[in-house]
Amino acid sequence: MNRIRNAFVSGKAFIPFITCGDPDLETTGKLVRAMAEEGADLIELGIPFSDPTSEGPVIQDADLRALKGGVTTDRILEFVRELRKDVSVPLVFMTYANVVFSYGTERFIQRAAEVGMDGLILADVPFEERDEFLEVCERYDLDLISMIAPTSRERIRMIAGEARGFIYIVSSLGVTGVRSTITTDIGAMVRLIREVSDVPCAVGFGISTPEQAEKMAASSDGAIVGSAIVRIIEEYGRDSVEPVRKYVREMCEAVHA
Amino acid sequence: MTNEKGRFGIHGGQYIPETLMNAVMELEQAYDHYKNDPEFNRELTDLFNRYAGRPSLLYYAERMSTDLGGAQIYLKREDLNHTGAHKINNVLGQALLAKKMGKTRLIAETGAGQHGVATATAAAYFGMECVVFMGEEDIRRQALNVYKMKLLGSDVIPVTTGTGTLKDAVSEAMREWTRRIDDTHYCLGSVMGPHPFPTIVRDFQAVISKEMREQFLQETGKLPDAVIACVGGGSNAIGSFYHFINDPGVRLIGCEAAGRGIDTFETAATINTGREGIFHGMKSYFCQDEFGQIAPVYSISAGLDYPGIGPEHAWLHDIGRAEYVPITDDEAVNAFEYLSRTEGVIPAIESAHALAYACRIAPQMSPDQCIAVTLSGRGDKDCVSIARYRGEEIEE
Which residue of A11, A15, A137, A172 shows the fewest CB atoms closer than 10 Å? Predict the structure, then answer.
């Protein structure tokens, strides 16, 4: 069983997201270790992109801070290699097609697998365009994660039927960012997915409170939280490890309960 | 030219979030239906002729031809269209399509403001709601167009992210489309973005070369030896090239904005300085760093200030059918002033990039040869910034 599957075996999963290099890679390392210690089941590591079209303002700003700080794909790969010496939590990269393509798709995926990554999420690669990435991911045993959106409707079976690792359910229309309410019927989406796949499903976009996370995880297999954590990092910078630790602890308690 | 999934060679495709996939598929189906619908085409031709002022003139620039002392120069006068640029061709087509699809709201990005004004115009004409995203840097450069959009009843949303220019306006319009899809059509302004936009926009702009070809045959009895147009995303250029692609005797030349020069970082010449990438829904050439971060680009022209190029141009470049040449700010400003003085026509600074190249090659050609230059827009909007470029401050 690969590490991603492992994240879901003992119950509902809590999946935090942070941007690598925001505010610097040393802090990113401390944040990953703290979140893993508090019970995060899988961690999404964002590779910053200059023009992240799926992100709301919070993660856009994080990407820009990280790039301004001088982080690069090479430095992030090296950072993961170091991290893997003592961190065993499942890790997936979240980024945009050009970061991978421009690096050389094969070269990127080979190195990501080599340094110990478990999966890859590409926000701007839908089912129809995934073959050029999927073929390489399969060769290096990296899971290319599929996304399903509230607008996916009749596409759900097609996407879920071929999904690997876990399925990322986008909770709402629009971009990433905190929302006060989520109105999509997640349960109905999960039921459609379950007709064709037993791959775990985690819900992201808009989740910030323990109540929301618990509710989303209850109708799926886990909750993904990005902007709410990145906002803490934005506020506290290098001193964000303890406040993030506290936040992740509360979220894990809600999701794992 | 389009094969599977809207590819032009290896370029094109649909690199967008899953949230938008059904919307672009719905658009593709609707377009496939209406493009062959006689009633749709009759309505669009009627709009072109009775609202936008088509067909646009093919104007023989006699004084300029004599002065340059080489090839004869003809100007395709898209600047005489309603709203003053070629942008209206695409916008009327897309707005009519959106209306047929039952959409009630248009969103658009704009750089120089020409596409924003055209979209606001079409929205007013069709009674649709309209929101235009415009970089804050461009809002500063093009205050008159901002006022026009508001006058036409549109909301103009300043985009403060990134470099505050066209690419950021495109990103923000794409984000807005993911927020609100059901009633909204994203009226993309150039031959870029995910399939089917590069094909739809090209087809609506192809009226330029369709007319140009007929006008040339009628007036000179032959085809031009070269067609020259400026290229940002590339919509007026592909419109100018399209009906000549199968005429190997016609050179097709796209003029990119070199800004302060292609050996500087202040440039927007994508084919000349960029490399293959994936951005804004398409695979094509982009100005980017070694890790694929999109480069901040620069040109005096807000309409050419974009780090990518439409996928069909990337393909025409790959197969050697079209040439893409860099034109600096200086060369464009000189051509802007030259045409004003010589022919009494003030060109858009974007179009002045194409004129500059015509000025360069015409003297090397013989008087029995012809060059067609697409004058994609008029230059009123640029007078303040060109005056500033020359060190003169004027009030708008």
Answer: A11
pLDDT 10s digits, B45-87: 999 999 999 999 999 999 999 999 999 999 999 999 999 999 9
d(CA A213, CA A195): 24
Low-confidence ranges of chain B (pLDDT < 50): 1-3
Gyration radius of chain A over CA positions: 17
Residues 6+ apart with CB under 8 A from A194: none
Question: Residue B137's pLDDT is what?
Answer: 83
Nearest Cα to Cα of residue A84 among A115, A58, A55, A54: A115
Q: Chain B residues with CB inside 8 Å of A173's CB?
A: 19, 178-181
Lowest mean pLDDT among A83-92, A139-148, B136-145, B220-229: B136-145
Per DSSP, what are the bridge partners of residue A91? A43
Minimum distance, in Å, between the CA of residue B20 and any CA atom of chain A? 8
Task: Select from A20, A49, A50 the residue whose CB has the most chain B CBs within 10 Å, as the one to mutate to test that interface.
Answer: A50
d(CA B254, CA B267): 16
Of the candidates B113, B53, B50, the one whose C-alpha atom is nearest the C-alpha of residue B81 is B53
A147 touches chain B (CB under 8 A): yes
Nearest to A125 among B15, B19, B171 (CB): B15
CB B195 within 8 A of CB B5: yes
pLDDT at B396: 65
CA distance A75 to chain B (A): 11
**pLDDT at residue A183 in the model:** 86
Q: CB-based contacts of B212: which residues, under 8 Å, 6+ apart?
A: B58, B76, B224, B227, B240, B243, B372, B374
Chain A environment of B160 (Cβ under 8 Å): none
Provide the token pair at B41. Answer: 């085409």
CB-based contact, A127 to chain B, within 8 Å? yes
Q: CB A187: neighbour CB atoms within 10 A?
A: 10
Identify which of B275, B283, B293 has the shortest CB distance to residue A50: B293
**What's the confidence (pLDDT) of residue B2?**
45
Question: Does pTM surpass 0.90?
Answer: yes
Which DSSP helix (H) or strand (E) runs through A251? helix A241-256
The token pair at B283 is 């695979």
- Test B18 with A153 for CB contact under 8 angstroms: no
Structure tokens belonging to residue B16: 């967008």
pLDDT for B1: 44
> Is the model's pLDDT at A1 over the cut of 60?
no
Q: Which residues of B302-335 are buried (b: 16+ CB within 10 A; e: fewer)?
A: bbbbbbbbbbbbbbbbbeeebbbbbbbbebbbeb
Q: What was the ipTM of the complex prediction?
A: 0.96
The closest of B373, B302, B299 to B338, measured between CA atoms, is B373
- From the candidates A72, A108, A129, which should be mutated to test the interface with B, based on the most B CB atoms within 10 A? A129
